[in-house]
């Protein structure tokens, strides 16, 4: 993750990807607690909107890969999602881990660690930016929270609705670097870009603020 502005940085932040997801089932409290235990500065997590307009912390738009349920997240209420087992797929010792709500995560971690919240599929989930912004705002604007998405349009809209919440755009340029003009556009509504580590060798002059990793203890 890289910042646009040339500010002096005190340290490189370690960001636990979907929690410490190499050690515990991704996007669960087990993975988030492990990330905190390993000293991560931020927890990265993914959100999807539910049938009843709540925000669930889960990467895929379907529950199949990471729970014992089937079907789209948006076809479940938050309460129904919380009945699923989100841990057994990773290991029997995690049986009973739940899909957390974003609200529960904010309540538990908002004054404890940084949060990097990724909005998934905003086009198929109208209202997800607003729901996220409202919830984050409830937990105070001074906390260390960044909202990110691959959808730059969604981040522009989010920034206009909630200018005091920091934003990042995930970029995955297919050929070479993103044009400078495009980066300037992104800089008008986002404070960071997130990109794959394999691109860093081509961007040595950029200041890097954080490393997003499944292994927060590795660094
Ligand atoms: O923050 C980078 C990363 O989370 C984006 O990819 O698929 O793991 O959500 P993904
Ligand atoms: Ca993510």
Secondary-structure map:
Layout: E1 2-3, E2 13-16, H1 29-37, E3 42-49, E4 55-57, H2 78-81, H3 102-109, E5 114-119, H4 128-138, E6 145-149, H5 152-161, E7 166-170, H6 180-187, E8 192-194, E9 210-213
Parallel strand pairs: 2-3, 2-9, 3-5, 5-6, 6-7, 7-8
Antiparallel strand pairs: 1-8, 3-4
Order of helices and strands: EEHEEHHEHEHEHEE
State the share of residues found in helices, binned by percent.
Answer: 10-25%
Q: Termini distance?
A: 15 Å
Structural class: alpha/beta
User: Biggest β-sheet, characterized?
Assistant: 9 strands, mixed
Rg (CA only):
17 Å
SS element count, helices: 6
What small molecules does this complex bind? SN-glycerol-3-phosphate, calcium ion
Portion in strands: 15-25%
Shape: globular
Q: Are there runs of 5+ residues with pLDDT below 50, and where?
A: 5-9
